[in-house]
Amino acid sequence: MSKKVLITETILRDAHQSQAATRMRIDEMIPMLEQLDDIGYYSLEGWGGATFDSCLRFLNEDPWDRLRTLRKYIKKTPIQMLLRGQNLLGYKHYADDVVDKFVEASIRNGIGVIRVFDALNDERNLECAMNAINKYKGDYGAVCEATICYTTSPVHTNEYFIQKAKTLEQMGADNICLKDMSNIILPYTTYELIKGMKKVLKPTTKIHLHTHNTTGTGEMVYLKAIEAGCDIVDCALSAMGNGTSQPATEPFVATLKGTEYDTGIDIEKLVPINEHFKKVSQRLEKDGILNPKVRGIDVNTLIYQVPGGMLSNLMSQLQQAGKLDKLTECLAEVPNVRKDAGYPPLVTPSSQIVGTQAVLNILQNERYKMVTKEFKALMKGEYGKLIGEPDPEILKKVVGNEKRITYRPADDIAPEYEKFKEEMKEYYTQEEDVLSYALFNQVAINFFKYRLARDKKVDADAAKSEVYPV
Ligand SMILES: [Mn+2]
User: Fold this and answer.
1) Which residues surround ligand 1, an ion (CB under 5 A)?
2) What's the Cα-to-Cα distance from 389 to each of 121, 188, 341, 356, 393, rounded to whole Å?
3) Which of 354, 410, 442, 451 is the most buried (most CB within 10 A)?
């Protein structure tokens, strides 16, 4: 029986986020959008994650215009986005009214698949976004893809992940995404896990697997996943595939051709598209944005279970302190801190919080002599529920007698959309501007000023501001 495997192409989002700090511009995408639309991908990932931030901060593009432009050329294939649950695309929890409006505007402007995740896998942080997706998806046709962040620890058993998948399905997910941010999942674990999930999920619920090829196991992970019944995998065209990005599209299409898993994709149609993105990749390298190292394999993540981005953060923190010789000690401290904090998955923002605390513990020569505000908040439950119980003594040392939060963190946030709207009213041109401002405050204001100057030509200097910095 044929079991066609579906592919999500990430060249417009995660590929350049992982290899080139999310700096691909819309004018570098437009020439290939219609051809990408004709390939027969399940979806084209093109928005969310860091793209929104990068558009406003570095590229002087309105992220909403980018989405509308993508939709103008991509007429058949759903455009996929990544959403950080109650954090939306920002770095803190937002009130429910802002989450609802953001999801509505995303779907109305052309998003077809919303992949929604929470760094701690706390489903209470997904509730509001998932309800909003399901509320608005009927109007335009969109898919609610709820996500589980993969990590390893004594409490993250296969049973835990399988139960989590069932819970998310019951909350209204159409697809379940298993998201391996840093390529630490291993092929045979993947097989067991996907088999287990398939057993408990409805036959209509699709499983979508996301990994990278940072540690070199990506294609093997995908192959075992589809043998276990995985429906969709994320790949990136070879021009910006492999290494810190997704496993490359073309070899995967070729591997499955003529088998029961045949993707139905014509590999020859990918050639001219890939040639175009090779040139984009070369431009990014020439501008010093893409370091060729990202195209190789780095096994440090397999050994230390520390994602690539977190490792480079650790190194730069130690370098600044002139203590690069303490790297091995800090790497060894990361799993200890993670254990003390109830084993959070290492993904933004928890990866930075745990990494910084590990560095402090080593450099201060005493564990938790100093703690960051964020680490304290994590231990208090302000980011969400920790899956393991934090170490009681360390909890006492860090949090003291302050009350821990046991409810959904956003329950503490009063509606705030109208307040944001009032604060930015002099720049208002569309409802979407309020949402850009809610997420990125001053960065959004700087963009609005640039846009005003450009459109009204009132201030030639402001309009000329650096457009493509490193
Ligand atoms: Mn990714």
Assistant:
1) 14
2) 15, 29, 7, 21, 11
3) 354
